[in-house]
Amino acid sequence: MTSPETRVAGSTRPVLALRVDHGDGGRPLTFVPERLVCCGWVGRDRAALQAHIDELAHVGVKPPTRVPIFMNFSPGLLTLDDEMEVVSQTTSGEVEYVLLCRGDDMWVTVGSDQTDRSVETHSIVASKQMCGKYVASRCWAYADVAAHWDQLLLRCWITAGAERSLYQESPLAAILAPGELVARLPGGLGPVPAVLFSGTIATRGGLVYADAYELELEDPVLGRSIRGSYRVRTLAQHT
Length: 239
Description:
mainly beta, eleven-stranded mixed sheet, 5 helices, 41% strand
């Protein structure tokens, strides 16, 4: 297990040690987030958005009263670790693009918003605060991909038991772009360094409680990808 991030002394804020990929080989980026925002119900296509609402309804999650939604969480949930500890067998991840925003600078990477689906039937916010938020350790400058944003692709493979399968796949044209998400965010991002999870895409065959997740953000125009992966470990309970 690796732990590329550290913590600010006397604080729960993580210090994310990332690498910005460029054609020249890249450079390190140290990012200390003071805000974490997770978005939901972000589909541009109403039919695809309804499909995601419907798949969550099958596990008892109530439909939203507005779309999109924006939820603020503790930045301490963020992790670059390749193992995520949870307390329930009913958690699952979902691939998202992730924005790292600091002043006028913005970077993009891929991540997963692990969620406790049992708790989600009672409170979406509580279900997400219970689980870590995985972020890949490489990123791109948003300016490098803004002109062909909709052509970028999100993918997620899962491993459940001995079976590995493609779980999610979609171009970013299917969900709201960064400019629109930030514009709709109540109060905006504000002046502090922030991490924003985009919200996810529909699964290919329904929700699965997987043992491991492999994530990819592909840029077919520049011929490159960001990948990340993590395993889920359920902690034993004796209650």
